[in-house]
Amino acid sequence: MGSFSMWHWLIVLVIVLLLFGRGKIPELMGDVAKGIKSFKKGMNDEDAPEASSTTTTGKTVDHKADETK
Fold first, then answer.
1. What is the pLDDT of residues 38-64, one digit of tens each?
2. CB burial class (10 A; 0-12, 13-18, 19+) of residue 42?
3. Do the Cβ atoms of 67 and 59 come closer than 8 Å?
4. C-alpha–C-alpha distance, residues 55 and 33, integer Å
5. How far is the CA of 26 from the CAs of 20, 30, 62, in angstroms?
6. How far apart are alpha carbons 34 and 11 in whole angstroms?
7. Which region holds residue 50: left if phi is over 0, alpha if psi is between -120 and 50, else beta?
8. pTM for the full model?
9. Helix%, strand%, coil% for the chain, nearest 5
């Protein structure tokens, strides 16, 4: 009762194919893959400005707080 038999999965597959059609499922999976690639590219683009915070000579500038005397 807790697990699905082969007949259950076959019926679910037939219903999915009837709802979406044969050509629609690969399109959906392609759209999901494009979305994942765009997300990863966006995450990498956010990290890029942090790496470009160095000066043109390639050295970083350290900032020290002003000391009071």
1. 999 988 887 765 545 544 556 676 766
2. exposed
3. no
4. 37
5. 10, 6, 52
6. 30
7. alpha
8. 0.41
9. 60, 0, 40
CB atoms within 10 A of CB 32: 10
- The amino acid that residue 8 corresponds to is H
| 5 vs 48, higher pLDDT | 5
For residue 54 the two structure tokens come to 């160095």
CA distance between the termini of the chain: 78
Encode pLDDT of 11-38 as tens digits: 998 888 888 777 787 888 899 999 999 9
Side chain identity at residue 3, one-letter code: S
The phi and psi torsions of 4 (rounded to 5 degrees) equal -90, 140
Identify residue 19 by its one-letter amino acid code: L
- State residue 59's pLDDT score: 66
